[in-house]
Amino acid sequence: MNKVLYALLSLIAFTSCANSFNIQGTSNVSSLDGRKLYLKTDQADSLIDLDSCDVVHGQFAFHGTVDSAKIAQVFMDDINLQFPVVIEKGDITVKLDNTQQRVGGTPLNDKLNDFWTKFTQLRNQYAEIDHEESADIMNGHDEETVNARLIKKALNVYAKGDKLFTKFITENFDNVLGPWCFLTRISYETTPNAYPIWMNDYMYANAINQLPAWVEYIMTKATDTFKQNSRIKAFYADFQQAQKEMNGLAEPAGAVIPDAAGTTPNAAAPPTPAQMAGDSIPE
């Protein structure tokens, strides 16, 4: 009897260990020291805490078990640090610094880090174009001429982003990254103030005009696994309803586009942890 009980306990312990995740994090953001961080994920359209910890001398850690891979976000109190992490079994490393944010250690997190780094670089290019516009105007150049020239540069950045999202999603249709990335793009580009003020109206209109064809392209290429994702199904049903309303084929139903898990897409570039925590960052 004791041998059977021991075997059962060993099996439970092994299963728990096999599905456990361990996140070891570091940060050089001074204002994060002594603060409490939370690891949150979506569940039934609300955020739940997976774990919490204190930042001590630039070190923090999250632990837990997971039944399947999911996207989570790191929060400081109620503030989303805009840093996605894939919760999957294994040892995960997170770096939250003034100038660099990295996640890795497991297969999906390595993929996510590569994408998020490229995405952040593209978003930062809009800020660089904004600085160029301000400098040219201050130097006495005609505003309309400057803006017309720089809008072309912004559209080139948008085109690079389009390729980045499309490639990443199609390569990850059958894991958690595909649906998350798809909804992240929708969420960012349907936010009215996602770009610097002088280019915002033009770039927002461009995004809204481009997205319907892009959504249909993705759904045409998508695997059944992607299409059956609950958030994708909900979004696509709302999207199709909205398209019918625009074409006069249906009455308005008040559909709302869902955000990607944990995102708050309201800035020209994702803020750094230091900015979120209140540290000033030199220009």
UniProtKB/TrEMBL annotation:
The DUF4369 domain extends over: 21-112
Family annotation (PROSITE patterns): PROKAR_LIPOPROTEIN
One Pfam family, short name: DUF4369
Q: Which domain of life is it from?
A: Bacteria
What keywords would UniProt list here?
Answer: Signal
Q: Where is the signal peptide?
A: 1-18
Chain positions covered by the region annotation Disordered: 260-283
Q: What is this protein called?
A: DUF4369 domain-containing protein
